[in-house]
Amino acid sequence: MRRKLKKEFFDRSAIKVAGKLLGKYLVRKIGVKNRAYMITEVEVYDGHKDKASHARSGKTKRNWPMYGPAGKFYIYFTYGMHHMLNIVCGKKEYPSAILIRGVKDISGPGRLTKALKIDKKLNALAAGPKTGLWFEDKGVRIKKSEIKRTPRVGIDHAGKYWGRKPWRFVV
Questions:
Q1: Of 85, 101, 113, 156, which has the fewest Cβ atoms less than 10 A away?
Q2: Is the pLDDT of residue 51 over 80?
Q3: Over the stretch 127-163, which tens digit does the pLDDT of each residue have?
């Protein structure tokens, strides 16, 4: 079984999507080859109230893709060296996205984007073969008991409440 995840998969709460995204595959076309990587770690950033989210201060030139329709990428550059890959979830105009933190054999969102040659050229584009980056379901099922939920990484600035939300999902 192999099927491309469509917009509808992402058109719901990022919290609901996050756990379901584990075990799915991130597929990257580089040249003529498609390479598929099983997703093993994600983080949720959900709404204006989320103090760890880029949307906490409203829509900006940087975060506007988060407000777009589900199934589009939000890619930003951080620390002057890393691109971060996010997939937008939920309803249009509600800023919600999932950061892809790791895939099997590649740990860390910066290492992931570097290895897969992902940069801002994909920002605000829809996931799909036309863009060369998409998600597939290959039939892998991850049991709830295999998913560990922890606080998100590197967001101490978000305060105790938002900084401790268990919105990091790891296989």
A1: 156
A2: no
A3: 999 999 999 999 999 999 999 999 999 877 787 878 8
Q: How far apart are CA 116 and CA 30, in angstroms?
A: 8
Q: Say how far residue 52 (Cα) sits from the centre of its chain.
A: 15
The CATH number of the domain covering residues in 3-170: 3.10.300.10
The ranges assigned to domains in the chain are 3-170
Give me the mean pLDDT over the 63-83 stretch: 94
Q: H helices within the chain, ranges in order?
A: 7-10, 14-21, 109-115, 159-163
Report which residue type is found at 130.
K
Whether residue 108 is predicted with pLDDT greater than 80 in this model: the reply is yes
Q: b/e for 73-106, b at 16 or more Cβ within 10 A?
A: bbbbeeeeeebbbbbbbbeeebbbbbbbbbbeeb
What is the rounded CA–CA span in Å between residue 133 and residue 163?
30
Beta partners for residue 59, in sequence order = none
